[in-house]
Design brief:
Blueprint lengths: L11 H16 L10 H12 L9 H14 L8 H10 L11 H15 L4 H13 L10 H11 L6 H14 L5 H17 L7 H22 L2
Helix pairs in contact: 1-2, 1-4, 3-4, 3-7, 4-6, 4-7, 5-6, 9-10
InterPro entries: HD_phosphohydro
Protein name: Metal-dependent phosphohydrolase
């Protein structure tokens, strides 16, 4: 018998509505006589975010990043809020824990889907660029679009000790196939890279709210890893 389909996320319908509204906005005044329905694209994305290999990079993460983007945008003058939100939807749309090309593949998916969906080429290109920024979370100074997306993606680092512990455990579960010693070394390198950045959070609002607790959480995790 085929495996039962996974239960839909409680926020599935609300997210699908958010996606449809976003894509409609992102298209602007298209010259296309007929544009594709947003729904199949949204359903495809939500199916991807619900894949069984995911433990942290799940629909909950997508929802959290979208909410943090909405939280930060009123405090900045971002050139293209629609591109930021589109990039949030696509930034981990392709995610296999044993691959190192997830961001590149997610960016290619965004380029194909948004072109087909009649999003203007400049906005599609900006979305692709933003997705690729989530490889290193190190936007250039003055790149407000990139700063908002990266800050929203990293906001999980500033959670309560309990929430941060759940996040770290979920990341470990995604990499359950990696031996403990190898995982500890790789995870420690990721944490050191982030802690080595002059600023984890680039927008003033995110820096004020999240910088100190995020650094505390990551430093604590490094100590627990024995690094």
């Amino acid at each position: 018998m085929p495996a039962p389909a996974p239960a839909r996320h409680p926020a599935h319908d609300a997210l699908l509505t958010r996606w449809a509204d976003l894509l409609t906005t992102a298209r602007e005044a298209t010259t296309e006589a007929k544009t594709p329905s947003p729904v199949p694209y949204g359903e495809d994305l939500l199916t991807r975010w619900a894949e069984p290999q995911r433990r942290y990079h799940t629909t909950d993460h997508l929802l959290a990043v979208l909410d943090r983007v909405d939280e930060l945008l009123p405090h900045v003058q971002a050139p293209d809020p629609a591109a930021i939100r589109l990039a949030a939807w696509f930034h981990d749309a392709v995610y296999l824990p044993d691959r190192s090309t997830n961001e590149e593949r997610s960016a290619r998916l965004a380029e194909r889907a948004l072109t087909e969906a009649a999003v203007p080429a400049p906005r599609t290109a900006e979305t692709v660029r933003l997705v690729l920024l989530t490889r290193d979370h190190d936007p250039a100074e003055g790149d407000t679009n990139g700063e908002v997306l990266c800050d929203a993606d990293l906001a999980v680092l500033a959670g309560s000790p309990e929430d941060y512990g759940a996040y770290a455990a979920a990341v470990r579960e995604e990499y359950a196939f990696v031996p403990d010693d190898t995982f500890r070394e790789g995870r420690a390198n990721v944490l050191r890279h982030l802690l080595g950045l002059p600023h984890l959070f680039r927008t003033p609002a995110a820096h004020d709210r999240w910088e100190a607790p995020a650094r505390h959480n990551m430093t604590t995790e490094l100590e627990l890893l024995g690094a």
